[in-house]
Design brief:
Elements: H1 2-19, H2 30-37, H3 43-53, E1 62-64, E2 68-69, E3 79-80, E4 83-87, E5 92-98, H4 105-118, E6 133-139, E7 152-159, E8 164-176, H5 190-200, H6 214-223, H7 230-275, H8 280-287, H9 291-300
Parallel strand pairs: 5-6, 6-8
Antiparallel strand pairs: 1-4, 2-3, 4-5, 7-8
InterPro entries: RpnA (IPR010106)
Pfam families: PDDEXK_2 (PF12784)
Protein name: PD-(D/E)XK nuclease family transposase
Length: 303
């Protein structure tokens, strides 16, 4: 029995090592993200990050606010932010980490932004003046639209004729991290350095020469896994496993959904083409399917 217990313990240690053999925490895990940005100890790191990525921001102080918000009624949907903060001017900051593709992610981020707006409502006489709301989304994927190749996508309400900003107090910033590909020697600005750190931290074995500022010295100290308490190590292992499993399953699901959409497109091409007199060999070339597959689809469509 003793040998079996020892074997189980050794197996557990091997599994733990295999899971977290990196030196530094992965910022795209829930634990890692909140370790770096979500506590009083690391608040100065979040301030530095937001000041660099948001234009004209000079945040002096931040206050963490509750991350869970309920709608006005009992049946309204509940939202939980990764981080929700307020600066010294009363402006609101939602900071979200999105690990995998979501079909209606833009809708979700717009919906999330309505809660900091609604909570500013006042009873009685009120002139409707609002404090600005900023939504910052750090994405581990890219949009599939005209912004697919951008690193930063900044969105405000726009007047369509003059192409000018109509309302300054609502800002959405999407950081598409897969598109940030600068190497260490190419880093110039502090924004570059923060984005490089977020994307590469868990791959590094030491602090790069380009990241010698005090704020990064503190970041690397907080991120070193070997200095975690046993409880922190266990929590991080769980978070890392969840991140990997979730990302793999959601990315696979999204890819399958995309493939199904392409099949439906091809079925439409075959249907419309056949009804307009195109022969099966031509339809096969148009859809990059075999003639046998085209014939089968036509049969399924009742032709």
């Amino acid at each position: 029995m003793k040998k079996k217990g020892k074997a189980n313990k050794n197996t557990s240690l091997v599994q733990e090592f295999a899971l977290t053999q990196e030196r530094y925490v992965n910022p795209f895990t829930d634990f890692g993200f909140k370790k770096l940005f979500g506590s009083e100890m690391s608040k100065d790191l979040l301030i530095s990050f937001l000041n660099e990525i948001l234009p004209d921001q000079k945040i002096a102080t931040l206050t963490y606010k509750k991350t869970e918000h309920l709608g006005a009624g009992d049946l309204d949907r509940k939202v939980i932010y990764d981080l929700y903060c307020e600066n010294n001017r009363g402006e609101k900051f939602i900071v979200e980490l999105q690990k995998a593709k979501q079909t209606f992610f833009k809708d979700r981020s717009l919906f999330y932004s309505t809660f900091p707006i609604q909570e500013q409502g006042q009873q009685g006489d009120w002139d409707y003046e609002l404090k600005a709301v900023y939504t910052v989304a750090i994405l581990d994927f890219c949009f599939e639209d005209e912004h697919a190749k951008d690193v930063k996508v900044m969105v405000k309400l726009m007047e369509t004729e003059k192409k000018t900003v109509f309302y300054e107090k609502l800002t959405f910033l999407y950081l598409q991290m897969p598109n940030f590909n600068k190497k260490e020697e190419e880093l110039i600005s502090m924004e570059d350095k923060w984005l490089y750190l977020l994307k590469n931290l868990h791959k590094l074995t030491q602090r790069p020469a380009k990241l010698q500022e005090k704020v990064f010295e503190k970041t690397f100290k907080l991120a070193e896994i070997a200095k975690f308490t046993p409880e922190e190590r266990s929590a991080y292992n769980d978070s890392l496993k969840y991140y990997r499993d979730l990302k793999n399953s959601l990315d696979t699901s999204f890819a399958e959904g995309k493939a199904e959409g392409k099949i439906e497109e091809k079925r439409d091409v075959i249907k419309n083409g056949y009804e307009n007199g195109l022969p099966i060999p031509v339809l096969a070339k148009l859809t990059q399917l075999s003639e046998k597959e085209v014939a089968q689809i036509l049969k399924e469509l009742g032709y």
